[in-house]
Amino acid sequence: MFNFSSIKESVRKLSNLVKVNPDITDEDYIIKEINKFKNSIRRKQMVDGENYYNGKHDILKAKRMGIGENGELTELTNLPNNRIVDNQYKKMVDQKSNYLLGKPITFQCENEVYAKLIRKIINKKVQRLMKNLGEDSLNEGIGWLYVYYDEKGVFSLKRFKGYEIIPGWKDAEHTILEYVIRIYEVIKVEKNQEKIIEKVEVYDEKGVYYFTLDGNRLIPDNPRFKTHFSIIDHDGNIDGYNWTKIPIIPFKYNSKEIPLIKMVKSLQDGINKILSTFENNMEEDSRNTILVLVNYDGQNLGEFRKNLSQYGAVKIKTIDGAAGDLRTLQVEVNAENYKSILELFKKALIENAMGYDAKDDRLNGQPNQMNIQSMYSDIDLDANGMETEYQASFEELLWFINCHLYNTGIGDFENEEITVIFNRDMLMNESEIIDNVNKSTEVVSTETALANHPWVDDPQKELERIKKEKQENIEQYGNAFNPLNGGNTDDEDGDNNNE
Prior knowledge:
Elements: H1 7-14, E1 17-18, H2 27-38, H3 41-53, E2 65-67, E3 73-75, H4 88-101, E4 106-108, H5 112-121, H6 124-140, E5 142-149, E6 155-160, E7 165-169, E8 177-190, E9 193-204, E10 207-214, E11 217-226, E12 229-232, E13 238-243, E14 248-252, H7 261-283, E15 290-294, H8 301-311, E16 325-329, H9 335-353, H10 369-375, H11 377-407, E17 419-421, H12 430-439, H13 446-451, H14 459-480
Antiparallel strand pairs: 1-13, 2-3, 4-17, 5-6, 5-14, 7-8, 8-9, 9-10, 10-11, 12-13, 15-16
C-alpha cells in the first residue's frame, strides 16, 4: 500500500485504474478448465521441456526388456542397463536464450530523462529475470510476466511458469486476455509431515480470487479476493484499485506458442539411447554373453549362470562318450557405427532446434564475418521471430510502466517513442567490423556508427563520454594558450620579437 501523488487526476487522464467490488466466479467452469489443462498434450510438452532442461529425461526410466517364456516382453534385471543423459537440448536452450537475451537490453529515446527512468526500472535484476523468462519461453512455448506492487509499494515484476497458467483469450490471435487461471503447488507441514496443496488464483480486470483445490472443489482462501493493488488516500483511507488490463503479460517463443522440446525430443531420446546401448554392449563380457553349453555337469542353466558369475569358471565332463564343451558367441561392438549415428543425430538436433555448432568447420583458421554469419543464419532467423513476439510484449510492459510513472507523479511519458534493442551475442571478427565502421563514418551518423561498433553496448552513454572527453580537451588546451590563466603564447625565451 502506498500513496499516489494525485490519484484522481491520473484516473481521469489515463483511465488506467478502475475501483471495483468483488464478484462471484464460476466454480464449475474453473475446475473444468483446470482438469482439461492438466490432461492436455500441451501441458505435458511444457513439463517435458522443463524436465529435459533439468536433465530429467525419459532414458532414466528405461528398462532392459526381452522375450520371456510365454513370448511376452519381460524385464531383464540381470543385464547391464545404463541410462546415459547427453543433454544437447539444454545446450540449445542456453545457446538461444543467451544469443538473444544474454547481453543487456538497451533503450534508445530522444527524451533522455524517460530513458534513464526506464533503465532504472529495467535494472540488472530485471534483466536477469528477462533472461530466465527467455528460458521459460523456449522450454514451454510461452512465459508469463506478472506486474505488481510489493508490500513496500515498489513497482515489481515476477515470472509465472507456463505450465501453471491457463489463459482465457478474447481473440483467436492470442493477444488480449479475458482472464488467467493460475494453478500451482505449495508444501504445507501438518503434524510434522509435508503435504502438497494445490492453490488456484483467478485474475481478471476486477482483481484476483484465491482458492485451494480439494479434489473437484474450490475452497475460498482468506482473503478470498483482492484488487490488483491498494492505495492510501490523503485521509488515510485504504481503497482497492485495478488496472484496466490484466497485469500478466505473455512472452512467446513463437506465434504458435510451440515449445522447443516438441521439435527435438525424439532426437534427444535417440542420442541418449545410442550412448546407453553402446555402454551396455561394451559391458557384456564373457560372463553375460551368449554361451553354447555341451554336457554340463549341473542341474539347470540358472545354477550354471550363478556358478559362472560367482567363480568365473564352470565344470564340464564327458557323458556317454560325448565330450563336454563350452563355447561363446560374441557379437563385436563396432564403435565407428555408433559414432557415425551419434554424429547424425546431434547434427539433426542442432538443425531442428535452429541452433549452431560451435565446432563448425567454417570457424577453422581465420574465419571472416561472412562465414560467421553463415554459421549463425539458423539461430538468427529463429531469434527474429522470438524478438518480434518480445517487442510486442515489451510494448505491453511499457504501458504499465508509463501508467506507474504518471500516477506516482514522476511524469507523463505516454506519447514518448522508445526503441527496445536486443543486443545479440554473436561471435564476430572484431577487426573486420571496426574497419567497416571507420570507413562508414562519413556517410552515417556517429550514433549509428557507435551502435554497430563491437565494443559499444550503449550508444547513448558512449556519445556522452565522447562529448565529455571533447569538452575536457577544449578546456585543457584553452587554458594552455590563455595568458590570463598562466598560459604562455610567446617563444621559449619569452621574447616576442619578429626577425
